[in-house]
Design goal:
Blueprint (H helix, E strand, L loop, with lengths): L2 H11 L5 H53 L16 H6 L1 E3 L2 E3 L17 E3 L17 E3 L16
Antiparallel strand pairs: 1-2, 3-4
Length: 158
Amino acid sequence: MTLRRQCEVRGSREAGLTLVELIVTVTILGILAAAAIPVARFEVRREKERELRRDLWEMRDAIDHYKDAADKNAFQTKVDSMGYPPDLQTLVNGVDVQGKKVRFLRRIPVDPMTGNSDWGLRSNQDDPSSDSFGGQNVFDVYSKSTGTALDGTKYSEW
């Protein structure tokens, strides 16, 4: 057999992957994929927490703007409301200010932790740590989720 023929035979034998190499490669890819799953779950939870903080900030900001406008006598409020809105839907529906409809919130956001738009409410007359709504006005909002955040705090305390 010539040297050239020996090289051709040897080259065709070494052209593919052996079964062992293929198993090792698949095993390594499986280990890497298994390590990536917890990281992906962590990132999804972190994004939900960011969304919760943003939604709470947005609703509290709308409540503050409503209160500021009420304090400037831009519209009529109930005497016992202390200038706070009666409910979150009022912020969405808006109020008439000098013939114009002023809305403070586009929509009531969905709580990313509970999956619904049913938020915990506190009125100015309620105890700050209370989880029951007195109904006089909306002074603050919080998540009704019983879960714990990545930083160890309860979502309902945010």
